[in-house]
Design brief:
rod-shaped
């Protein structure tokens, strides 16, 4: 008699889903959790988009407490100065 009741109870219970993790997790989340998840996803996508396609960072060093580390001279400007020669920008009487 006990085995008959156990079989009837097992038959009366709904069948367990074959994949309990698929599809059911989103329906089980409350609305506020879904909203927070969507907002986090949008923020991550926006941040990655800004990092990839945003404006290029400035090439200057900001002065901190009045000190600026000088950058090396531009190679193109140094070649242009060398091509011009050693003449000063204005005429000096002793310069030949």
């Amino acid at each position: 008699m006990t085995q008959d009741r156990a079989l009837e109870a097992a038959a009366a219970q709904p069948a367990a889903p074959s994949h309990p993790g698929r599809g059911g997790s989103e329906r089980g989340m409350p609305a506020d959790v879904r909203i927070l998840l969507a907002a986090a996803a949008i923020a991550i996508v926006a941040g990655l988009g800004w990092a990839a396609m945003g404006p290029a960072p400035r090439d200057t060093t900001a002065p901190i407490l009045g000190f600026v580390d000088p950058r090396p001279p531009d190679a193109a400007a140094a070649r242009a100065r060398a091509a011009r020669g050693a003449e000063p920008p204005f005429r000096l009487p002793w310069w030949k």
